[in-house]
Amino acid sequence: MTATTPPRRTGTRWRTSLTLQAIGVAALVGLGSQMWAGRVMGLGGLGLVVQDQKAQFNTARLHTTNVGFGIVPITSRSTSGDSTKYALRMGFANGALDGFCLSQSKDFGGVLGTWTIRLTSRDTVTNSYDVAGQNVQFDVTSASSAGTPNTSGNGITLAGNVALGVAPQTITTWQSGGVDVTNPLDAPEDYTAIDGRLFGIDSDVGDLYNVKGDIYDAIIQGPINIKGLKIEVLHDTAANVGCKNIPIVY
């Protein structure tokens, strides 16, 4: 009796393929809810509800005119309900970024493990802007600066009229019809619970060099231009492939 070799299976393994597609879609939806673009008056601070899981970001340079930083309360939503947290809201009238990386990781448990979706925009040329948009807003919980790759500066550089310690609701960034929009960071007018003592910075011009950190959301009022966009779904953790833990893109 002659043994026969079972036929070799070829083609797509649909169960595995569909599982990976589902992971990719789930991760992309989660990250997409944290970075979005559209025409939004006030950019969404007062009505904005963010997911409890933060994303990571990095950029070699963010150049802007009319910049404001303010501590603001935001609503965070998780499976256990809504809660109030505080973030540094960074608002820019016009934002141009020399490279940009945004990532989020999710542990699906069991054999699936942790997956990371990562969006990058880059051209590997310093001081060449890869992302540009109007009325940019980031809600950041931590940020730090490295010394490279952009050697034109490091950390935060503010120029023109710079005001420190102002109330966030008095900060001005973008204009409508040539007039400063009131409270563009959408900071609450009344901080009763903390006696209004929240810190803000207002400046005519600002540059952030070699910055990376954690972010709740990124909002950009269109139109937005993104060069060299790359989207990756990686079977790895934030510690290995997250934007805060890889070399800064440019």
Q: Largest sheet, described in full?
A: 10 strands, mixed
Silhouette: globular
Succession of helices and strands: HEEEEEEEEEEEEH
Q: Overall mean pLDDT score?
A: 81
Number of domains: 1
Low-confidence stretches: 6-18, 36-46
- Determine the number of helices (DSSP H or I, runs of at least 4 residues): 2
Q: Strand pairing plus helix content: what structural class? A: mainly beta
Share of residues in helices: under 10%
**How many strands?**
12
Distance from first to last alpha carbon: 66 Å
Task: Please compute the radius of gyration using only Cα atoms.
Answer: 21 Å
Q: What fraction of the residues are assigned to beta strands by DSSP?
A: over 45%
Can you walk me through this structure?
The protein has helices at residues 14-32, 238-241, and strands at 35-37, 49-51, 55-78, 81-98, 100-107, 114-121, 131-145, 155-164, 175-176, 179-180, 200-226, 229-234. By secondary structure, it is mostly beta strands. It has one domain. Strands 1, 2, 3, 4, 5, 6, 7, 8, 11 and 12 form a 10-stranded mixed sheet that branches. The longest helix has 19 residues, at 14-32.
Task: Produce the secondary structure layout.
Blueprint: H1 14-32, E1 35-37, E2 49-51, E3 55-78, E4 81-98, E5 100-107, E6 114-121, E7 131-145, E8 155-164, E9 175-176, E10 179-180, E11 200-226, E12 229-234, H2 238-241
Parallel strand pairs: 1-11, 2-3
Antiparallel strand pairs: 3-4, 3-5, 3-11, 4-7, 5-6, 6-12, 7-11, 8-11, 9-10
